[in-house]
């Protein structure tokens, strides 16, 4: 694939209060908090995993980071949300599985309303299933899995690492499991309600270098199975070394390892340390790392970096695909490298174009996005921002794509923009030497024949450049510089139109 960079240019001149026609969408993010969830979401919740059942029930797993807040001991929590009601399922899951603790790093929703959750905290009951038909929890014990998979001599201390599926055969599930100090790839046949050993051996399954964070995935395009060891972003970027053993592919009865000795088609080397891997709908394999993103088309690897594509930094923590076939790439800020900002780059393979989500064209929290979850077939996008020491500003956000809302755009450091270009989005915030004005936006409505002004935004011109998700209608815009008279103007905005303001 040829890497293309197509960016919308800066608008060099703008007429005062010029209304632009078009179909620009004002996508916006809705934050879900402890208050909005009826005090169900924990106060310091760090979202680590999400899943959506085929019946529409959403599952949120994460850790309440109380210790960093000085508020007690951390707890792991499982929450569900049906679109209206938030329910804490933590104790129900513990009771059903007989658990003292839970760790649902992997959750897999099948096509029958069930959600499968390996619990890495209990080798005796390593798997829990939420039955979407009955609404009840079901435990699958290690003895059940082992006795069905190895009738003549089962493995012991069974840990199920993760569950993954075959989109062409919804009746078959796969599991990466550890028992007797080695790894296995197991299969579950829904029609027979039976677990079996796949018979696959060797390669990473016999490697003594494979750690505890082992993941698997299936590529329906060529029937290959992929195994890799996840290396956390913190380990990768604080150690300064390329940890891990790369990624392994099992195809046609043999294993192939891709690691730092593997050359890419554009002259780079592959990596050992992997932060994310997934297979897109076309069968391409994507791998995230601290050296950018690697894409495999079935024959060759290509390395995407901030130097040859529109990534915000090379510190990639998440790669996913939405229902339109676009590839979402989440980059974290690299504090040691100038102009390495965090943000989300979205690549459209259909036409080679890019879109972006950062604090400069969306929510301020987007610069600290650490996880993206594509639910269903990728039609729902959820995001978690902030982690660790950022717990106080962390949050769970759901994306709404809506052309019925509008966006008012202003200026970035004195430059007026229609849609922020990639170069402008990457630019570090600098002190604006121009006169700072306070900008206030009011929604103007009529209530019993009286005019009511409701404030919808207040900020400074040195930092202000957008107000997203505004309903259509009349707005009062006020600007006030220190020692100067207040200036006011009234505008009327229509559905889906971006409205550009010159705030001089």
Keywords:
504 residues; mainly beta; 2 domains; Methylamine Dehydrogenase, Chain H; Immunoglobulin-like; 41% strand
Question: Can you offer a commentary on this structure?
Answer:
With 504 residues, the protein is mainly beta. It has 2 domains: 29-407, Methylamine Dehydrogenase, Chain H, CATH 2.130.10.10; 430-500, Immunoglobulin-like (Sandwich). 6% of the residues lie in helices and 41% in strands. It is built from 5 helices and 37 strands. The strands form 10 sheets. It has a 4-stranded antiparallel beta sheet, with no helix packed on it. Strands 2-3-4-5 form a 4-stranded antiparallel beta sheet. A 4-stranded antiparallel beta sheet has the order 6-7-8-9. The protein is globular, with a radius of gyration of 25 Å. The chain starts with 27 loop residues before the first strand and ends with a strand.
Question: How many domains comprise the coordinates?
Answer: 2
| CATH fold-type name of the largest domain | Methylamine Dehydrogenase, Chain H
Question: How many individual helices?
Answer: 5
Spatial extent as radius of gyration: 25 Å
Q: Average pLDDT, to the nearest integer? A: 83
| Helical fraction | under 10%
CATH homology-level superfamily of the largest domain: YVTN repeat-like/Quinoprotein amine dehydrogenase
Low-pLDDT runs of 5+ residues are 1-24, 429-433
Q: The biggest beta sheet, please?
A: 4 strands, antiparallel
CATH architecture of the largest domain: 7 Propeller
Percent of residues in β-strands: 35-45%
Please state how the strands of the largest beta sheet are arranged side by side: 1-28-27-26
CATH class designation of the largest domain? Mainly Beta
Secondary structure category: mainly beta
Number of strands: 37
Between the first and last Cα atoms, what is the distance in angstroms? 44 Å
């Amino acid at each position: 694939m040829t890497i293309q960079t197509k960016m919308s240019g800066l608008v060099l001149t703008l007429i005062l209060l010029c209304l632009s026609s078009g179909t620009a969408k004002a996508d916006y993010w809705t934050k879900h908090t402890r208050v909005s969830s009826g005090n169900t979401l924990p106060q310091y919740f760090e979202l680590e995993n999400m899943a959506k059942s085929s019946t529409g029930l959403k599952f949120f797993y994460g850790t309440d980071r109380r210790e960093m807040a000085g508020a007690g001991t951390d707890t792991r929590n499982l929450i569900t949300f049906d679109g209206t009601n938030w329910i804490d399922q933590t104790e129900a899951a513990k009771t059903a599985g007989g658990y003292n603790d839970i760790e649902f790093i992997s959750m897999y929703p099948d096509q029958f309303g069930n959600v499968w959750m390996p619990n890495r905290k209990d080798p005796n009951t390593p798997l829990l299933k939420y039955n979407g038909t009955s609404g009840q929890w079901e435990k699958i014990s290690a003895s059940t899995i082992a006795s069905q998979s190895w009738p003549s001599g089962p493995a012991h201390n069974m840990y199920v690492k993760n569950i993954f599926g075959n989109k062409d055969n919804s009746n078959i599930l796969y599991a990466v499991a550890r028992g007797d100090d080695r790894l296995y790839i197991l299969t579950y046949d829904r029609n027979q309600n039976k677990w079996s050993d796949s018979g696959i051996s060797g390669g990473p399954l016999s490697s003594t270098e494979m750690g505890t964070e082992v993941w698997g995935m299936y590529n329906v395009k060529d029937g290959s199975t992929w195994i890799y060891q996840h290396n956390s972003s913190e380990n990768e970027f604080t150690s300064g070394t390329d940890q891990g053993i790369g990624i392994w592919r099992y195809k046609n009865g043999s294993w192939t390892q891709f690691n730092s000795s593997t050359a890419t088609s554009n002259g780079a080397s592959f990596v050992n340390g992997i932060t994310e891997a997934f297979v897109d709908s076309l069968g391409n394999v994507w791998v995230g790392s601290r050296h950018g993103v690697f894409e495999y088309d079935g024959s060759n690897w290509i390395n995407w970096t901030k130097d040859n594509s529109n990534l915000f930094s090379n510190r990639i923590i998440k790669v996913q695909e939405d229902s339109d076939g676009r590839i979402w790439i989440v980059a974290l800020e690299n504090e040691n490298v100038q102009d390495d900002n965090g943000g989300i780059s979205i690549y459209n393979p259909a036409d080679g174009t890019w879109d972006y989500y950062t604090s400069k064209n969306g929510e301020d929290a987007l610069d600290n996005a650490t996880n993206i979850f594509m639910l269903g077939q990728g039609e729902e996008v959820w995001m978690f921002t902030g982690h660790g020491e950022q717990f106080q500003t962390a949050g769970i956000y759901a994306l709404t794509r809506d052309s019925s809302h509008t966006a008012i755009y202003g200026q970035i450091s004195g430059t007026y923009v229609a849609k922020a270009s990639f170069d402008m989005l990457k630019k570090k915030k600098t002190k604006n030497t121009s006169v700072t004005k306070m900008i206030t936006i009011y929604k103007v409505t009529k209530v019993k024949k009286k005019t009511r002004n409701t404030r919808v935004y207040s900020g400074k011109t040195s930092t202000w450049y957008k107000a997203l998700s505004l309903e259509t209608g009349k707005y009062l815009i006020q600007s006030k510089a220190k020692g100067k008279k207040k200036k006011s103007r009234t505008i009327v905005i229509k559905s889906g139109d971006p409205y550009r303001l010159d705030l001089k």
